[in-house]
Amino acid sequence: MLRHGKYKGRTLEYVLQHDRKYCAWLIDAGRHQSLPRDLQKFARTIEQRHGGVLQVGAHKEAFFDEVMDKHPSYGEWAATLTNPGDGISKFARFAKKRLAEDEAETGRKEKKPQARQPHDDGKCCVVCKDKPKECAFVPCGHMVTCARCAALVEADGCPVCRQEISMILKVYT
């Protein structure tokens, strides 16, 4: 039972089920400012149980472990990022750790996302690695994603240069 904050009198399970944004805020606030002990404990519990809460992308407001269980290819992709942005870096570290644990548990190496596209000739989306590149970002001009993935990364900026995206242009070749 929480004794402080906007969910005073509610159970931890209630908050986990009803307000993922609050859960994400608690984790971040616990690192940057002093919180009452019960909220600090709750933030640690969220991280221990779920790893954290995604704050960007296609699976925004989902727990890290949920994403890895329901959408493993997204976790595999995040684990391959060499310079992830602030919004996904914690998830990328979680995904790498989880994939390494799964690999150690199964005793065999899992297929990496790059192995899915051995025929990739530079024409595939750099995010999903499945569809052809079809969108250019304005103002930087990079053309590296399919339409679906362009919409997913728009809030985070260009995946190549991290520049803010003011517009997405669909390119027809």
Q: What attributes does this structure have?
A:
Herpes Virus-1, 7 helices, two-stranded antiparallel ribbon, 173 residues, mainly alpha, 3 domains
List the helices and strands and how they pair.
Layout: H1 12-18, H2 20-32, H3 37-50, H4 64-70, H5 72-79, H6 86-106, E1 135-138, H7 147-153, E2 167-170
Antiparallel strand pairs: 1-2
Model description:
Helix 4 packs across helix 5 (72-79) and helix 5 packs across helix 6. A two-stranded antiparallel ribbon has the order 1-2. The chain is built from seven helices and two strands, in the order H-H-H-H-H-H-E-H-E. The chain has three domains: 1-50, no CATH class; 53-116, no CATH class; 119-170, Zinc/RING finger domain, C3HC4 (zinc finger) (Herpes Virus-1). It is mainly alpha-helical and 173 residues long.
